[in-house]
Protein 1
Amino acid sequence: MSALPPLGLIAGNGMLPYRIIETLRGSARPVFTVGISGEVDDGFADDMHAWIGLGQLQRARDLMQQEGVREVVIVGGVQRPNLATLDLDEGGAWVVERALSKAQRGDNAVLSLVLDYFEAQGFEIVSAAELLSPATPLQGLLTDTDMAPHRQDMARAVEIARHIGALDIGQGAIVARGIVLGVESVEGTDAMLARIGELSDEVRGTQAARAGVLAKVPKPQQDRRIDLPALGPQTVEGAAQAGLAGIVFEADGVLFEALDACIARANREGLFLFGLTTEDL
């Protein structure tokens, strides 16, 4: 029996929760997993020890306290709910009442309150980035395709992404030939890429003549213990289908769902992946 208390993991959608489970599976640190109903991918459902509704933070607290959890990581996406109609327990109501009192109700504002709630209950918040540190640095060019012809679009996309992040709108933007084609909001990156793919070839790139860059960066004011930008093979595929030339991201501010698969997919499609340092931003 492990002498270490279990790490609490509150899981949303995507592969990142499972990556943490796999990372810790062979270690001395046990994990107590709490899945958000309707969010956890079906293939990972058997890895969950308990389930909560999106507005059931008190239930999550009670379950984790019963298991002796002291540290919590919250990872994975969720579909943005209507806060006014969300089914809430006392913990969820604590967050939502405070969120609805704010003029700005973006993801960062709400998620910061979620962290405040769990910290008020005596838990220490652990960043997913601490548990998923890449084996190799993410700075610079990770792929075979040259990004030099697209530096201006890279810089402009990062600038736009940081501006919308400061307004708590989203974490991503797409620029092609100096034109802003899209900014990420509640629909998420995949839906934004699909929308760009429906634009005229006159303004976006094509698979034969790629143009445009997706930038993914954290919001300047966000608490990096939660909701860091995530990139996965589906992101690379979406960028490829939209005719983009590449993806740029903050090297220390992104979580890859499957880095090797992303690099391999990008190389097959002729896209670049480029990690910026904080000095580059």
Protein 2
Amino acid sequence: MSVPKKRRSTRMIELTRAFLESPNTLFSLTEWADTYGSAKSSLSEDVAMIKTTFETQGIGTVVTFAGAQGGVMYVPSMAFSQAHSLVVSLIQKVEDPSRILPGGYVYLTDLLGDPYVLRQIGRLVAALFPAHTFDVIMTVETKGIPLAYAASYALNRRVVIARRDSQITEGSLVTINYVSGSNRHIQTMSLSRRMVPEGARVLIIDDFLRGGGTLKGMSDLLKEFRATPIGAFVLMEAESEGVRLYDDHISLLRLNMLDDTHQTLKVEAGNVFSRWKAEADYDRL
């Protein structure tokens, strides 16, 4: 039974939607040819136009893989100019003195609940950490969770969440004690044995970095799974009062100065632009 042929405009909309809804997923041109009743050469032309549009808009590219098991894949990214605009916008929002909290912290919860901000941060993480370089995204409850899922949606990678308190619904757990970098207190972190496969490559994400204790705790916890952290991303970092316990990270913002007495703060770009990758390296794919 022949498949009704769709108009090209309809087909291109559906292909674009498939790419955007399933980033880093390999689509077979042969299967698409069967689905749309179109020649693979026509579909290749469609994909080429979509790729050009994605690259022009700065939202990523489409990579073609040759061979019997080949196909096409949308790889999300973000143009440098878009990343710069995002950082400038966030600095303007965060430098509001009403955000100052006791203890040298800054209120960020509203940003972590803003879907537009989260989508943009997810795209930025996708530009910095191409999906082929890691298998799992890890965070710790609670405020790192929205950032982790923003990256998860952009990269199509699974999220695992370390808990500070054990949960019976998590099943068998691996638990470690770690030193909080900010107050040097001993705290507990747990992760289900089912969540991280042995040998997995893991991207760590958190909302705030000062002493680095939480990031180091997550890194140490991963060692119990024989997993490897490939890097860490934080929304904001601040100067540590002592020795920082974990420093292999990329930060979007940096809290440069906070004066509780005079209710003033200064925020600048983190180290994100010094670590920027304009294009992903696909040689290892």
Protein 3
Amino acid sequence: AGVRHAPDGLARAAFDRIGGYAGRRHGGPEQLRRNLARVVGTTREQVPDDLVADAMRSYARYWYEAFRLPAQDLAETAATVDVPAPDRARLDAALSRGKGVILSLPHTGNWDMAGVWLVQNRASFATVAERLRPESLFNRFVEYRESLGFEIFPLSGGEQPPFGQLAARLREGKIVCLLGERDLARHGVPVTFFGEKTRMPAGSARLAIETGAALLPVHHWFTDAPGSMIGCGEEIDVSVGVEAATQALADAFAANIAAHPADWHMLQPLWESDWTDRQRARIVGDA
């Protein structure tokens, strides 16, 4: 509550300092450095310290803005987000077909802020939320995102599996938004990402194939505070099948992340070569 109502300049500066400190202390988070090494095409030792610090400042900004969103005027907040005219046109063209639109994006910038722009300027949308423990934490998380205008389906433990519920929304001509660059489980599709093997969720491509909805890669990144931007890429061709469409989505993510590496908030192991023994055993066992 304190962050929500503190003076913006002071609170934002405090989070920026905390992020910068975390990014420089002992070279910053090790896994973040390893992940950024793939993005900039170097070794972990050669990743610029400034990039790691900027990435942690960006991550701190995400949390700062997430804490404050529920207390903000959402229309005014959405006005700080810029979407170039060609990107708006791609989104509107897809919506005009009436078959639904799937917006798939990586963990970049502030995906909640991107969602607020969408609700305020186009329409509400459906998405999924990973079930958290304890249940009270999950419920607060769902209430928070519903307060922003999002429709939330639990990824597990709900009355129905989310795939069917999302497909129903798409058949109504509505929008579904899904985070799409990390799925280290049996349903993940093997892809090459920045030249190395990993897995990404199949859900976006599967939904598009089953419902006829358009699948568009989306990217959100920060500009000078409090500004930010959303890019909406060309529609992914899903006629090639789930695997090839997911690889095309991975390629779109990679191009956008490479353009804005500091705003990619991936602090966990992503690539196969970084998997823990436990992750590898689970994935191989599931396969």
Protein 4
Amino acid sequence: MATPIGNLDDSTIRAIEVLKQVDLVAAEDTRHSQYLLSHFGIRKPMLSLHDHNEEARIVVVCAALAEGRSIALISDAGTPLISDPGFRVVRAVRAAGFRVVPIPGACAAIVALSSSGLPSDRFLFVGFAPARSQARKTLFEEYVRRPETLIFYESPRRVADFFEDAEAVFGGQRRACIAKELTKLHERIVDGTLSEIKRLLMEPAMQRGEFVIVMGGYEKPARDGVDEALGAAAGLVDLDQALRTVNRYLPPKQACALVADLYAVDKKALYQRWVDRNSGA
């Protein structure tokens, strides 16, 4: 069952009624979730269910269901299982033949995407990136040429490092949006390039809160000119040098085709450029 991501008034009428009716509430952090229940005057037995005890809780949950008891599974905020524990329990409950009823509501990833101004027709939810820089860069490299909008979660202590590595892998001009403290008093949603947002995060106040990062997908460079296309990609690759190197081993047309594929430029335009620059040779 989904719970608010910050503003308790975002609780749905159905969610409140379900919490009143169930026999047991399985929560990621019982102390945190107790505040939600108390806000609506609800008192229920609670069971902790988090990353470190999920496997053990499967037996407890299934046994309770077998006794005819009803259970609401909630996370600290938003929709359970989305970068939160619970999928193993849900899988086991379904396998045991019990009914799983979704109670929809808030999800930080969707809230951020819908307010980012970035394409929302296709997107990939990546979740939290690794804590270490090299592992984070390796992950980014897997997605650098994906055309879908990317959605990440990040903690305040790592958000500046996230953008440092993202700029290095995706390039400073990749469009992005950073959403912090969604639905809360100090909510802030800022869009710009990765370089612009990285500079903004130099402000200490911007590094507080929980973050959703929405990043635009890879866009192929414009095909109306090799130089323009390369400039859009970064302006750092020497196409002529690349062609000269590959041409040592392949005929000109094949060399141009290979280099064009490597750097995502139009092979016909690249071959014409090679012809123009070598016609007097």
